[in-house]
Specification:
heterodimer; A: mainly alpha; MetI-like fold; 11 helices; about 75% helix; B: six-stranded mixed sheet; five-stranded antiparallel sheet; 20 strands; about 25% helix; binds adenosine-5'-triphosphate; binds magnesium ion
């Protein structure tokens, strides 16, 4: 092969990715097994104690519970609302379509810190208690655009006369959606749900403002950084979060492709 | 009361495209009055964009008329949604449900109507046998060829025993050979089940092959309604004559009108054309039409025929026939089709020969434009 190809844009990008993204992750995982409270080389010895401590930590388990609950609830609602929005945008050629799309996509570009502060102000005014519920609500809003994009790209991929065919055969509009549209979109729906879930599960900035006492995992993790002796445990926690999130994302991407492929054939 | 399966009364459909000042109204169907007789194979024929699909979608209920009323089996349909209408559609791209196997696709309508399972199974089996796909029930639509998918779509519609089956160019995606086979098969199936078929195509040959009745459409209007032989032999106007089959058009001026017919002058020659249905005055320009296979080439004009002189411009041998392109003295070209190896009095000509193009008086028709 050509030697000067090493400096092509592709390989520079790949090198940067390795150094800046995967090297830190690798270090994180290495140190999570290191038998020392200080994160420096040389390594001391292999241990599983930090992972053991994670498991024994009640506060942490409670935070995990909160995160799972918020993640599950918010992504379920975001997926349902995103589906409805996607059907409205793709299937009905409504007048204010582009405005609707722009408004739905806005959360993609608003900085989470600013959004968190403004929600804090709003919730105080309206009298919504700072809680896991409040954080879940916020996560619904930031997740919807992702759900909307994934599902509408699937809807665009199959002909709308499948719904007409179902109605032609006697199904009501809702029957057609339920028996034809939703099943065909199901990989995309699951992909949207999982993506929303990882967004919620990893989100720190907004949650830190409005979860109140119901700390989520990222909020808890950040709060523990103040205690130097707990640093290795935080590292172990971070390693777990990272690996779970990455696994879910890979699965999601695979699902999205599986969901897309039949449309190309026919 | 009536014997119409479907009746359109003054149906107009306007699409507005664009918005505000740039808006433009497209009249896809104009003041259409049409009765589709029960149990017949009825074809809507016309060039692309003439409003065939729109007419079908109006009947199915996917579009609502801008004005007018549609009756199916004598009942007004304006307030009846598509899923309740006694019609089913075979879509041009088949629209099979990709997430269901063939049997579930066919059973879809039955499942909606909550027909008992065993009953569903029996009906689906019968339907798949009818379309010759008996052992394909377990396959997914993506594992079928185009022709097979088309049959599944047909079976899926037929199991619901609709009063009317609507088919929108269902053979459009098939190759010529399969197309021809499916045309015959579709016609047989229609005769077997006795359901009214409303069939859309832009292929005149297909329409002639299959239909009991043809409505020829252009620009949202029905130009002529009749059985295939009538449309072919007695086209109502130039568009019909041109669209259905091949036609020669010859222009002339009215020389005299007698009880025997109308004499037309084509340059220096006089021909007599039967003109019962057309009102013409002396001196007026007129066009008449003759099918290529109704013309012959002779060196001398036989008795009781009409003739024009011309020069053979080109001889094209196409197996069963020979096609002669002849330039008349007036400068117009006509096509003459002669069957090969049939009758002994067929003369052979070659390029440049001076000939008489002859025909029987009853084979020529005067047309309005
Ligand atoms: N939804 C629509 N909005 C605007 N105009 C439309 C719409 N549907 C059809 N038209 C217009 O109405 C006219 C008739 O269309 P239609 O689809 O009925 O034609 P068709 O005879 O089925 O043609 P083809 O043989 O190409 O399928 C066309 O000029 C088309 O552009
Ligand atoms: Mg069409």
């Amino acid at each position: 092969m050509n030697k000067h190809k090493i400096f092509s844009p592709g390989s520079i990008y790949f090198l940067l990715m390795c150094v800046l993204l995967y090297l830190p992750i690798l270090l994180l995982i290495i140190f999570s097994f290191n038998d020392s409270t200080r994160l420096v080389f040389p390594l001391k010895g292999f241990t599983l104690q930090w992972y053991g401590k994670l498991y024994e930590n009640r506060e942490l388990l409670k935070a995990l519970g909160n995160s799972l609950m918020i993640g599950f609830g918010s992504s379920l609602i975001a997926t349902i609302l995103g589906t409805m929005g996607a059907i409205a945008i793709v299937r009905f050629k409504l007048p204010g379509r582009s405005v609707f799309l722009a408004v739905s996509a806005l959360p993609l570009v608003i900085p989470y810190v600013i959004f968190g502060v403004s929600l804090l102000i709003l919730f105080n005014e309206v009298g919504i208690r700072l809680s896991a519920f409040a954080a879940g609500l916020a996560h619904v809003i930031i997740s919807i655009p992702y759900a909307l994009l994934i599902i509408s790209s699937r809807l665009v991929g199959f002909p709308d006369n499948l719904e007409e065919a179902a109605m032609d055969l006697g199904a009501s509009y809702w029957g057609a959606l339920l028996k034809v549209t939703i099943p065909i979109c199901s990989p995309a729906l699951l992909a949207a749900f999982l993506l929303c879930f990882t967004i919620s599960f990893d989100e720190y900035a907004i949650a830190s403002f409005i979860v109140g006492t119901d700390a989520t995992l990222p909020v808890y993790l950040f709060s523990q950084l103040r205690f130097p002796t707990r640093l290795p445990m935080v590292v172990a926690l971070a390693a777990v979060l990272m690996i779970v999130t990455m696994a879910v994302m890979l699965f999601t991407e695979w699902l999205r492709r599986v969901g897309q492929s039949p449309a190309k054939k026919g | 009361m009536t014997d119409y399966a479907v009746e359109l009364c003054n149906v107009t459909k306007v699409f507005s495209s664009g918005r505000g000042a740039k808006s433009e109204d497209v009249y896809a169907v104009k003041e259409m009055n049409l009765g589709i007789p029960r149990g017949q194979f009825f074809t809507l024929l016309g060039p692309s964009g003439c409003g065939k699909t729109t007419t079908l979608r109006l009947i199915a209920g996917f579009e609502t008329p801008s004005s007018g009323e549609i009756f199916i089996q004598g009942k007004p349909m304006s307030k009846i949604p598509p899923n309740v209408r006694p019609v089913n559609t075979v879509f041009q791209n088949y629209a099979l449900f990709p997430h269901m196997n063939v049997a579930s696709n066919v059973a879809f309508g039955l499942a909606i109507k909550r027909v008992p399972r065993d009953e569903q199974k029996r009906i689906v089996k019968e339907a798949l046998e009818l379309v010759q796909l008996a052992d394909m029930g377990k396959r997914m639509p993506s594992q079928l060829s185009g022709g097979q998918q088309q049959r599944v779509a047909l079976a899926r519609a037929l199991v619901n025993k609709p009063a009317v089956l609507l088919l929108d160019e269902p053979l459009g995606a098939l190759d010529l050979k399969l197309r021809k086979a499916m045309q015959i098969e579709l016609k047989h199936i229609q005769e077997q089940v006795g359901i009214t078929f409303v069939y859309v195509t832009h292929d005149q040959e297909e329409a002639l092959t299959m239909s009991d009745f043809i409505a020829l459409m252009s620009d949202g209007l029905i130009l002529q309604l009749g059985d295939p032989a009538t449309l072919y032999k007695k086209p109502a106007n130039k568009f019909v004559a041109d669209f259905i089959g091949e036609s020669n058009f010859i222009r002339g001026t009215v020389d005299s009108i007698t009880r025997k017919g109308t004499k037309l002058r084509v340059l220096d020659e006089l021909v007599t054309v039967d003109a019962m249905e057309v009102n013409l005055a002396k001196g007026q320009a007129a066009t008449f039409t003759i099918r290529p296979e109704k013309m012959m080439l002779k060196t001398k004009q036989p008795v009781s025929t009409e003739a024009l002189s011309g020069t053979v411009q080109e001889v094209i041998y196409i197996g069963t026939d020979t096609r002669y392109i002849v330039t008349l003295q007036s400068g117009e070209s006509v096509v003459v089709r002669v069957q090969n190896g049939c009758s002994p009095d067929v003369e052979q000509f070659s390029k440049g020969d001076l000939v008489k193009v002859v025909w029987l008086p009853e084979d020529a028709r005067l047309l309005t434009d």
